[in-house]
Known about the structure:
By secondary structure, the protein is an alpha/beta fold. It is built from twelve helices and 21 strands.
Amino acid sequence: MATRAARTRFACRECGYESPRWLGRCPSCQAWNSLEEFKPAVPALVSSSPRPQTLADVDRSPDARARTGLSELDRVLGGGIVPGSVVLMGGEPGIGKSTLLLQASHRFAEQHGPVLYVSAEESIEQVALRARRVGALSRALSVLAETDVDAVMTAACAHRPKLLVVDSVQTVAASDAEGPAGSLSQVRECAARLTRLAKAEGIPVLLVGHVNKQGLLAGPKVLEHSVDAVLYMEGERHTQFRTLRCAKNRFGSTDEIGIFEMAEEGLREVPNPSELFLEERAAGAAGTVIVATLEGTRPLLVEVQALVGPAPFGGTPRRQVSGVDYQRAAIILAVLERRCGLPLHSCDVFINVAGGVRLLEPAADLAVAVAVASAHWDRPVDPGTVVFGEVGLAGEVRATRRAERRAQEAAKLGFRRCVLPRANASPVVLRTGIECVGVATVAEALKAVDAAERR
Ligand code: TYD
Ligand code: MG
């Protein structure tokens, strides 16, 4: 009993926090009932005795990175793949992780030599079908359909690839570890073994990890602390655009994003995302504006659209809202009516957020107000302008969190002007390289975007 207690540990499936005892609530991420039992595997014996080195003698130039050749991916990685690093690529099933990594593997193999792509969830035939479709037929790219992590490691040691891709970390398993593939202990153990391989042999490893909203599989969150970089692929499955974001990077910035378009022949890079956002919009259409919103800590630029027309005489005006909270939209319409004099009580109003995005934070309020006013006046907002800010009942525009981050993202994506809460227009924000217009009220914001239109 004593030995068992000493060996068994518990880890949070949400954040990876470890504890020697079971706890009802994770002290790190506050999730309830998220601690799972696991048995740490006995560390493998190292064949040679470890040899400490002085840092000055370590021969590794900082730009020893190998480019994959997919520049959007390289950008997010911070310039390429660092030798011996472990990168986790997370995303919902079906979003395009296997497609992207197969394309990256092909390009990498063409430039740097052998790549081993381990498919633990699809047969060789399925992978070959996809490879033919996306043109990933490099002679230096080999595929192995294998689910045993030790067999994968043996193959990697024999094959000595310049890059190892494991698709996915939730479908490989170690025969001597507890639980089925995808369980917390298996995911941790497989990732740990592959990390040891990467470090010992200097082979960079790309791991695929499915993000599961129901939390049925141990998610990539559990691995975030043990890998060198974590990338997330996002996008709506029914729209063709995919965004690659970096949640962690030991070798570079996490601010870069990569944008791809899913086409018949795989993922196509979108080198100028700002143009994409502007192109997607109907040129000069009234009733649309871009909002700089935050998804957790990550900024995202989204288009808010509105359509306003006369309500049928004597009928109840229609209010149809998707992508923003109905109650918040109703408040914003009331503020526009009362504080800015827009006669919306006699109008049908439709509000939509492009791309099926849901804007849940109050910082999107100002964009809704601007889009509705622009639609009502039939005057387009300058397409180079981004807005954000919370709207209060008195018609005031309230400060939002991380204004600097939002303005930075807008500047990075090529926007010229940002209309934001006056309280957020601090010197730091003003230095982000975008023209910032601080506004205290919705009426001021409407004037500010109208002025932009007349330039
Ligand atoms: P996939 O890479 O299998 O997703 P994941 O590995 O993240 O589960 O991509 C799945 C979707 O991508 C699938 O619905 C079909 C689509 N797709 C294309 O539209 N074009 C292509 O060339 C390929 C290979 C896939
Ligand atoms: Mg896949």
